[in-house]
Fold this sequence. Notes:
mainly alpha, 80% helix, globular
Amino acid sequence: MRAAHQNPPADGSPHERLTWHLQKTGEAFVSHEDFLRLLLVLVMSNEAAEAAEAMRTVVEVRSEGRDLMQQMIRSSFAVEGDDVATAIADELAHFGMAGFDGAFVSLQSNDGKPIAELMAQLADAMAALGESRIRSIRAQSD
Length: 142
């Protein structure tokens, strides 16, 4: 994942940068889909809950993924300043992970939507939520 996100765009709107990050994330997981499929099976299985080491691994991987999602969001909204970008990233990281998980499950079900389209829609939603949060932050500071 870290290799897929090297050299992010320096220019563009938060929406454009977020779209780039999410597209790269989708591409990375499509090329390594067995890993995510296994991770999701472990998350949803009772056996993993009973196997402490397996559950620790799942928690670590999910935590690292959430950290990466926060970095992607923070980087995308960096033009708004560190405090605002961090607030948006903290608020949207779980939503981004849930959206990505859902997109991956949709992809696995062969429902006909390509990952690029799903990632574009997730970027649209996250950018709109981030922009709404920016307006709220600005209104509070006025």
